[in-house]
């Protein structure tokens, strides 16, 4: 079946269109690959155990409040995390890690202005705090200030070149700016440093799809699925690649599996609708486009699905 040349479609980034989901996906309190002179957040093997211990002996120092705060953060209890980071800062006003932790907690609640303020303070207290540059960079990304985001990522990478998370996030920003070659270069470096970084394979497949390099996109999506079989979005990216190389049946199979894994993910319905259109199955295509419109929070995707519904072939 020949593809309809008038159809212009995109594949999907791993990260949700929800700003809070974006922040949660990219920023954390886990230790990064750090320089010995840069403050890091020590990992908590069992945050529940930390909270249990603190219930027997309540915190009294800034460090203890910080430790309990990051335990709350890792468990997703951002309100209690904020209270503990507040206590830590009150007891130790120059505690840059507490500002960083509070900034992450604010960001995870969608309060990006306060998150930005705390990251600024953490950097003011320690200009070499590369994690704070990364997380401020991603906050700029969420706010749509991509050039400022790139500036912070550049600084984070200058301070610590062995930082795959920063390369990954800089790649996301380049991708948002449609600078796909730069994005792919950053993704490649992130994978060189961390070969099992499945999120990078997912997003590099997106960049390859945007460049029309569908075979490479299919390969990266396949590797992502091998590393994380539960990533429904990767099936959608691979389905998009298969659709564009003329394999509508495989596109439908992949999109259907993506829908099984993530039934709320509108993009997979959209791609499956395109594949059904390529097979002249307009009834199933119409159903999928309508479902994509109902589910997606992405304005561009919604507009594309609406255009497909209004296309002459659907009437």
Structure report:
- By secondary structure, the protein is mainly α.
- It has 17 helices and no strands.
- The protein has helices spanning 19-26, 47-56, 62-74, 78-91, 96-108, 112-125, 130-142, 146-159, 164-176, 180-193, 198-210, 214-227, 232-244, 248-261, 266-278, 282-295, 299-310.
- α13 packs antiparallel against α14.
- It is elongated and about 70 Å long.
- It starts with 18 loop residues before the first helix and ends in a 5-residue tail after the last helix.
Q: Which outline best applies?
A: elongated
Reported for the largest beta sheet, the result is:
none
What is the CA-CA span between the terminal residues?
20 Å
User: Structural class, judged by helices and strands?
Assistant: mainly alpha
SS field, number of helical segments: 17
Residue ranges: pLDDT <50 for 5 or more in a row? 1-12, 27-45
Radius of gyration: 22 Å
Q: How many runs of DSSP E, i.e. beta strands? A: 0
What percentage of amino acids are in beta strands?
Answer: under 5%
- What is the residue-mean pLDDT, rounded to a whole number? 86
Helix content: 55-70%
SSE order: HHHHHHHHHHHHHHHHH
In short:
This protein has 315 residues and is an all-alpha fold. It is built from 17 helices and no strands.
